[in-house]
Amino acid sequence: MTSDPEELNRSEEHHNGVNVNIVPVMEGDSVTLHTDVAKYIHYVQWSFGPEHTIIIIQFNGRTPNITYFNVERIRDRLQIDNQTGSLTIRNIQITDNGLYELRMKKYRLLFNVTVYARLPIPIVTSDSSNCLSNCSLLCSAVNVSHVTLSWYKGNSLLSSISVSDLSISLSLPLEVEYQDENTYSCVINNPISNKTQHLLDINQFCKTSADGVKIVSVMEGDSVTLHANASDIPRRYMRNIMWRFAPEDTRIVRDIRLDEKTGEIIYHEDDIFRDRLQIDNQTGSLTIRNIRTTDSGLYQMYGLFLRESFNVTVYARLPIPVITRDSSCFSSSSGSSSVSRCVLLCSVFNVSHMTLSWYKGNSLLSSISVSDLISSVSLHLEVEYQDNNTYSCVLNNPISNQTRHLNVSELCQT
Questions:
Q1: DSSP alpha helices (H): ranges in 157-257?
Q2: Is the dihedral of CA 271, 275, 279, 281 positive or negative?
Q3: Separation CA 181–CA 313 (nearest Å)
Q4: Which residues of the chain are in CATH 2.60.40.10 domains?
Q5: Who contacts 329 (Cβ-Cβ below 8 Å, separation ≥6)?
Q6: Between β-strands 78-80 and 87-89, what pairing exists: parallel, antiparallel or unpaired?
């Protein structure tokens, strides 16, 4: 895909009194910077890049004489128009960002080229950090920069957040009602492209069972409040409210209620929640502090006029993945050429309910998922030596992620 220069160069700014053409382009595309002069001019000079690359084009008759300086990094991706001196950059990279200066005999042009990374599709999950009576959603994108993340209801913008520098994880919450029938979408965009995740059925994310059990996800060590919405119940009936907890891993049922006289919490079984619970005496809502994975299970609130149920899943905090070089490095040959490749291994230990993935930039390369507790999970990646692409290994569960960025030159030393 070649960007249309007439469209790109309409936007201008000024640099030391010289007009600067603003040129946005997508990573991997091609772009042409036009000299906008008639053919067979005498002299053209391009200069750009951190290496102070210089290209001098002298036209003697129909065959130009082109001289390159400090052009090794980008030489095989450049093309010079033999008639006008216009410069084309193929397979443009993020590192090609910057100011490109064109000098000719009588005038000078500047092009400010901004290369944007290809955008990932946003990921929408239920949000554990705000366990309200409504459903809380979280839209996220990883390893992004110069983007805006937005929530829409139909065509109406609800909220947005923007970042300029590289952000390992960008998230935006949204609160909706259970059984909401509106259409929502989460959009990530930069000045030249966008990706959208549509929520056609809110019940896919705001899960309730047939009897109205609300699904709650929370991170180990955090606090969560299970909202009972009992504020309209006459206060004299609040003493009849009781919470019952049925853990996932046992058949023991634990009852929890407030003492009518002292207002203190009464435990009718062993006090595994000692000093970690709080019941709101106005609403009946239950707060669990410093929650543990053993606190996962079904929580039910009983009252004379109200019954609420919550299925709580507590996820362990994720470790940062570890990247090592695999001992099985090898060379693969094709015809007369031989390409050395480096085999890498991304690993995590003692994890459950998670996915381990390799990314090249924002593109998913491979992944593996586990549900039960497992002592070790690993995922291979094969790259060429001297590979200049950006790779990362991401570990995620439904509510969080951890990322380890790969330095190919550091791990794949020949």
A1: none
A2: positive
A3: 26
A4: 5-116, 118-207, 211-315, 322-411
A5: 340, 341, 342, 343, 412
A6: antiparallel
What does the pLDDT profile of the chain (414 residues) look like in tens digits? 333 333 333 355 555 556 788 999 998 899 999 887 665 567 788 888 776 788 877 776 566 788 888 877 788 888 888 777 888 999 998 888 889 988 887 778 889 999 998 888 888 876 544 444 567 888 888 778 889 999 998 888 999 998 887 766 788 888 887 667 788 889 999 988 888 888 766 766 666 655 678 878 888 888 888 877 665 666 665 666 788 888 865 666 777 777 766 667 776 655 677 778 888 877 778 888 899 988 888 888 887 667 888 888 888 888 999 999 876 555 454 444 456 788 999 999 988 888 899 998 778 889 998 887 777 899 999 988 777 788 889 998 877 788 888 888 788 876
CATH topology of domain 118-207: Immunoglobulin-like (2.60.40)
Which two structure tokens, joined as six digits, stand for 9?
A: 């160069």
Torsion of CA 137, 138, 139, 145, to 10 degrees: 160
- Give the DSSP H/E element, type plus range, for residue 217: strand 214-219
- Side-chain-side CA neighbours of 98 within 13 Å: the count stands at 16
Cα–Cα distance for residue pair 214/404, rounded to 1 Å:
34
Tokens at residue 70, please?
């400090």
CATH architecture of 211-315: Sandwich (2.60)
The answer to whether domain 322-411 has CATH 1.20.1070.10 is no
Rounded-to-integer distance, Cα 223 and Cα 154, Å = 33
Residues 288 and 301: beta-carbon distance below 8 Å: no
Place of tokens 């309730």: 208
One-letter amino acid for residue 400 of the chain: S
Rounded to 5 degrees, what are φ and ψ at 203? -70, -15
The helix/strand count (H/E) of the chain reads as 2, 34
User: Cα–Cα distance between 306 and 48 in angstroms, integer?
Assistant: 70
Asked if the 5-116 domain carries CATH number 3.30.590.10, the reply is: no
Residue showing tokens 């990362």: 392
What the block records as the tokens of 247 is 């853990």
What is the phi-psi region of residue 10: left when phi exceeds 0, alpha when psi lies from -120 to 50, beta otherwise? alpha
Q: What is the pTM of this model?
A: 0.53
Residue 108: both structure tokens together: 């000078």
Give which of 409, 324, 400, 403 is closest to 361, Cα–Cα: 403
Amino acid at 393: C
